[in-house]
Batch of 2 targets.
Target 1
Amino acid sequence: RELGAERLDLLERVGHWPVPVVKIIENTPDAAILRNDILDQKPISSWTMGRITLLGDAAHATTPNMGQGGCLALEDALVLSHCLDQGRDTPQEALLRYQELRMKRAYRVVRQSWWTGKLFQLENSFLCALRDGFLQRLDPEKSVEQLACSDGFRTTVLPAARQGASFQISVPIGEFHGRIWATTPNGSHII
């Protein structure tokens, strides 16, 4: 059987990996091999025009290196709903307030994800060894806290998180505190 171009490219990239991985790729039908390129988008200066605003990837697309794209979209939705619900601003003012509250954090995560991708795609063996040694010394609990604690966010790492199961992020907006709380695996998701 002749291998398709995508599969050949993939095998060239991972041919040195363990045999079971290579066999899986060799036995996967060409139609089932999906390639999605990751393209960077420069940050835009405004998400809002009049009564229209952007949120999630439309406002701040991020590389998948930190798995934060969906989280940022949930945070956007929470902040946007609060800004619109307050009733003290016109809709246009509420949308601009949402943009002001979200832009700094969203773009910080976008930049951090981009740099994380660069770090994990290093090819120089010396730099890879330095990176790996540094990462082995990191405390995973502190990493979650660091990700969520800047820009006025607060995180509570619940006891189950020490086994990779649960975390909670509180999003302060003035006197309002929204919560994004996820429990995984095999648990319910509460948002």
Note: The longest strand covers residues 166-173.
Target 2
Amino acid sequence: RLSCAVSRIQVRDGFLVLMAALWCADESGVLPIFLLAAAVHECGHLFVIRLSGGTVHALCLTACGAVLRCSLPPSPFSRAAICLAGPAASFALTALANPLGAYRLAGASALLGLFNLLPVPPLDGGMALVYLSDGGFPRVRGVLAALSGATLLLCGLLCLRNDGGCWVLLTGTAICISALRMKKCSEICVF
């Protein structure tokens, strides 16, 4: 029997502050759309965790995204599949929403899926690389992560310079900080 029940949901103060700030800044009403896309993304992870025999202990909502605390199966391929299930669910939602005319939902879901494929731990793409390489090639993974983080920060600075807002810069900073503070490879972070 597949059950996607999470035994404990934790909401950190930073998440609440971020949601309040985004709610106030959201003049076009895209926040609920992104939250729906994020929920579908997380359900993709939950489904494959349960399908592969893992157990979910907690879902923690932080200012940097959602963190699933779980016991993962020992196979590196199963772990990589769990990491990639979130972006796969995002792309599936994009494929369903687009023909129905829900273009903002399709765009939000595609953006979320693509962003999470960046090769920066703790994002899904970075964690999938860790599992598929079985912890090997740390220099290559480090260079990919550094290039991705630097690209996010540079794009954020360009957006800020051109009055595009500071969200990409803040996101890039949050991802770089989260990657530096990551304690365990058994955590799957998504945004």
Note: DSSP finds seven helices and four strands in the chain.
